[in-house]
Amino acid sequence: MINSFIVFFAIVSGTNATSSESGPDSVVESAVNSVPAATDKKTPVMAKLAILIDDMGHSLKSNHALLNLPAELSFAFLPHATYSKALAGTATALNKDILMHAPMEAIYNLPLGPGGMTSQMTEQSFKATLRQNIEAIPNLIGVNNHMGSKLTAMQRQMRWTMEVVKERGLFFLDSKTSAKSVAWQQAKEAGIDCLKRDVFLDHKLTAAAINKQFDRALRIAKLQGHAVVIAHPHALTIKVLKKRLNTLSAQQVQLVSVSTLIAALKEDDAVATQVASRK
């Protein structure tokens, strides 16, 4: 890859939004365990870090704290949470990327709340619900899944999802709440811009654990050129982010929006295609 990217996806939720669905999956864990410590002498170019604040809309205090951080963060809003529409308006005024965080069925039958999408729905009902969820969030540019360990592993439902996402001209981010997820694959097959998560930042809520996951994201980024990380709007998470984001430039890392990362990856693909065609 011509450019080296760090993608840090901080998916943020309200006080009651975190669940076992935000735990690390075995595929990512095994890959990361093989990543050496970040002792590289140099990185070819400034790496890029994209942070998505997910599950927005439950808490004015924590959500405003994140929106007001002087950083290039991106935000995903639950479609029918109490404050989602108002906070999305604030995010728009601050020129932040906005996504809709689609509630999808989990293997543990966790409550989805309004706008929940399940495997029992007909295609018509499924797509109508997704369209309503999209329309509930103003100025969005993408969609990602909230929970969804069951639904994202289902080919047919993910094909329906991408058909709606494509018709609306949006991108999709696979939160990878299951190692069996086919969402990213279905998005690629549908010709949709897409990303997928590598690391959950705050599945374990201690400062040591959050900092360890932050370091892990940096190691993955240096190994593969980019990393996608998800976190939540806990007070401790916000505290760690405030401290760690200030250290990025010294580590040759540039914080960027999700859309900027997608554009950069597309540019890399285009250049790689041109180089290959000349051989």
Task: Explain the overall architecture.
The chain is α/β, with parallel strands linked by helices and 279 residues long. The chain has a single domain (20-277), classed as Glycoside hydrolase/deacetylase (TIM Barrel), CATH 3.20.20.370. It has helices at residues 26-33, 60-67, 84-93, 123-135, 155-167, 183-189, 207-224, 235-245, 258-277; strands spanning 47-56, 73-77, 97-104, 142-147, 171-174, 194-196, 199-200, 229-231, 253-256. Strands 1, 2, 3, 4, 5, 6, 7, 8 and 9 form a nine-stranded parallel β-sheet that branches. Strand 5, helix 6 (183-189) and strand 6 (194-196) form a beta-alpha-beta unit.
Look at the structure and give the mean pLDDT: 86
* Strand residue content: 15-25%
CATH homologous superfamily, by name? Glycoside hydrolase/deacetylase
**Annotation field: number of helices:** 9
Structural class: alpha/beta
What do we call the CATH topology?
Answer: TIM Barrel
How far the N terminus sits from the C terminus, by CA atoms, comes to 17 Å
Shape: globular
Secondary structure: helix percent: 25-40%
Number of strands: 9
Unreliable runs: 1-19, 24-43
